[in-house]
Write a structure and sequence with these properties.
This protein has 267 residues and is an alpha+beta fold. The protein has 2 domains: 3-73, no CATH class; 112-265, Immunoglobulin-like. The chain contains 6 helices and 11 strands. The chain has helices at 3-14, 20-43, 48-59, 62-72, 75-105, 113-117, and strands spanning 127-133, 138-142, 145-158, 167-177, 193-196, 201-202, 213-222, 225-233, 242-249, 252-259, 263-265. It is rod-shaped, with a radius of gyration of 35 Å. The model is unreliable at 104-112 and 121-125 (pLDDT under 50).
Length: 267
């Protein structure tokens, strides 16, 4: 079989197709068809030369075939299909970024939003008073993660009339974002400590079981986002101007300074 002759015929036949993917596909189909015809003829007793001539005659003029194929396979639809595929992929990627944040803004993924950051609530213990802080607007970055403190609230719990029977707790909400699809949930940074402007220290609850201490619980709120609830127990920084969350382990260093001067007590 003359491979070169069949290749030349198919190349001429598809030369009028301007959309390259269609051109390759039609070339392969035509070539396979010519091979099948050739094998049938040789199996029927034709010589190789005779079989080639018969196949070429049956296929006709490659120039005319090229003009017909060019009319059928217009590039507009091919490029439109490719553009639609690209748009679909980009829309899916964009949705992965936007949807978790949109859901979080609706309050669906916020960890315990009513319990920890709502207005002052009555409890079985009697007193549950909240001190609300202005929106923190604090960010820090490390290891590809972005840490954003989104909310801050202080609560006073208790049932008795004596001051030492009340306990104060500070709650923080942190959004942890990493755009890398392969990134795992960020648990390495949960061993925070905290220091305020008065010198009070809140060690990580991983290092001590005594108050005051700081603990973190994590909730996966999207493909790229975790929502953390940070709790400072036996809170003693009511008169402090600032408090700073710190992480200094495994070669990582992260600082999240929080201004405590924009505080007001909820009704």
């Amino acid at each position: 079989m003359s491979v070169l002759r069949f290749d030349r015929w198919c190349s001429l036949a598809v030369s009028g197709i301007r959309f390259r993917p269609d051109r390759k596909e039609i070339y392969e189909e035509l070539y396979a068809h010519m091979e099948d015809q050739y094998e049938e003829l040789t199996a029927a007793g034709f010589s190789e030369k005779e079989a080639e001539e018969e196949v070429a005659a049956a296929m006709g003029d490659p120039g005319e075939t090229s003009r017909q194929l060019a009319r059928i396979h217009r590039p507009f639809w091919g490029y439109a299909l490719r553009a639609a595929r690209v748009c679909l992929i980009l829309s899916a990627i964009l949705a992965l970024f936007i949807l978790p944040r949109y859901v979080q803004e609706l309050g669906i993924t916020r960890h315990g939003s009513d319990e920890f950051f709502g207005e002052g609530l009555e409890t079985e213990q009697g007193v549950n008073r909240r001190v609300w802080y202005d929106e923190p607007k604090v960010q820090g970055r490390s290891d590809g993660y972005t840490f954003t403190v989104t909310r801050l609230a202080e609560r006073l719990y208790g049932s008795g009339l004596m001051r030492d029977e009340f306990r104060r707790i500070l709650y923080l909400e942190i959004r942890v974002f990493n755009p890398r699809p392969w990134a795992e949930e960020c648990t390495a940074f949960t061993e925070f400590t905290a220091v305020d402007s008065l010198g009070n220290v809140y060690p990580s609850a991983y290092d001590t079981d005594r108050a005051p201490s700081l603990s973190v619980s994590c909730t996966r709120s999207g493909p790229f986002t975790d929502t953390w609830l940070v709790i400072l127990r036996d809170y003693r920084s009511q008169e402090a101007n600032w408090i700073e969350l710190r992480y200094d382990k495994s070669g990582r260093h992260l600082r999240l300074p929080l201004d405590l001067r924009g505080r007001r007590e909820a009704a």
